[in-house]
Design a protein that fits this description.
This protein is an alpha/beta fold. The chain has helices spanning 13-30, 54-63, 89-98, 123-130, 189-193, 206-215, 222-231, 262-270, 277-284, 288-301, 316-323; strands spanning 5-9, 35-36, 44-48, 67-72, 81-84, 141-142, 160-162, 170-173, 178-180, 202-203, 220-221, 248-250, 304-306, 327-328. Strand 3, helix 2 (54-63) and strand 4 (67-72) form a beta-alpha-beta unit.
Length: 329
């Protein structure tokens, strides 16, 4: 296979060394013509989709016309191919066999027009991202780091905390995928609305996490915080890949937060069967933008699905990736 080049992109040095050794062994056993190459020259990029910037790396690689492989502990990825973590020689052999028909020099897709003056990504942009037709990262659109990025399985090496003015301290324990700092959600709204950078996050020991947990009423699952992130997406905008032309249904009764009383009424309506957003708003008496927010939160946590699609309950990696999309600045 001519020009069958591959690069492992964005991995820690110790991990990429091991994976490259496994790749070389798989390549020898298959007697294929694959070869490692620098990222700029490689036809295929293997991307750590569990890392904080995995989603952005995928956007850039796909925009450059490259074939992408998502290395992840999840069962799904938006990349062209999937490589499950932990990596094995057999897994790499299967991947190389699957990619036997990868073209050496594919024709680039036509550029996608993006409206960057509307105060947010256009509908055309979101469709381009989620249907794998995006050809370049548009000027003026970036993904500012948010609290959800730090919930990726590889974002934090151990317990950590962040403190915003006027908000309770927020602590994370990646080993248990739990957070602590507030038993209720509304006090944490500043964290899901703010830009949070690595420099804002401080590593702590497990003892300090336990102290914060005890003082704040116990630990809470990451999914609860991700639910709040979905609820707080601005401007009544659906998550990437979902359309208001779709019908949505509640597949299981969610944990109704007392801080959001309208959700009980909306959930009761959604349990009756698939319905369009406008119909859900009319039947429940809840504003359409609030219906969209509730649907986003449910799509992330798996309690809401689009008609005809399976649920993805409890999939933190998927929820983080859905939230890690570019925002207008």
């Amino acid at each position: 296979m001519a020009n069958a080049t591959l690069c492992f992109s964005g991995f820690p040095r110790d991990e990429v060394t091991l994976i490259q050794e496994q790749f070389e062994q798989a390549n020898r056993e298959l007697a294929t013509a694959w070869a490692l190459a620098p990222e700029a020259d490689a036809r295929v990029l293997v991307i750590d989709m569990d890392s904080m910037y995995g989603h952005m790396s995928w956007l850039k690689a796909h925009g450059g016309g490259k074939t992408t492989v998502g290395l992840t502990a999840s069962e799904r990825s938006e990349t062209d191919y999937l490589l499950r973590r932990p990596v094995s020689v057999e897994g790499l052999k299967t991947l190389l066999q699957q990619m036997e028909g990868v073209p050496a020099d594919p024709e680039p897709a036509p550029p996608t027009q993006v409206d960057v003056n509307s105060g947010g990504p256009s509908a055309e942009y979101l469709v381009a991202v989620t249907t794998s037709r995006m050809t370049a990262m548009p000027a003026g659109l970036t993904h500012e780091p948010r609290v959800s990025d730090f919930l990726s399985s590889r974002a934090l090496g151990g317990p950590a905390k962040v403190q915003l003015p006027g908000a309770p301290v927020l602590a994370f324990d990646p080993a248990t995928q739990t957070y602590a700092g507030s038993a209720s959600l509304k006090p944490l709204l500043p964290y899901v609305e703010a830009v949070i950078r690595e420099s804002d996050v401080e590593a702590i020991d497990l003892a300090e996490f336990e102290r914060i947990k005890a003082a704040s009423g116990g630990a809470q699952p990451y999914m609860r915080l991700l639910w709040l992130c979905g609820l707080s997406i601005p401007d009544g905008e659906l998550l990437p890949g979902y359309s208001p032309a779709k019908k949505f249904v509640l597949t299981k009764w969610p944990q109704i937060e007392r801080e959001f009383p309208k959700h009980f009424r909306l959930a009761t309506v959604m349990m009756k069967g698939p319905a369009l957003i406008r119909d859900l708003a009319e039947l429940s008496g809840v504003a359409p933008a609030e219906v969209v927010a509730f649907i986003n939160a449910g799509l992330l946590t798996g309690s809401v699905v689009a008609e005809g699609e399976p649920s993805a309950a409890g999939d933190v990696a998927r929820a983080v990736a859905l939230l890690a999309r570019p925002r207008a600045h």
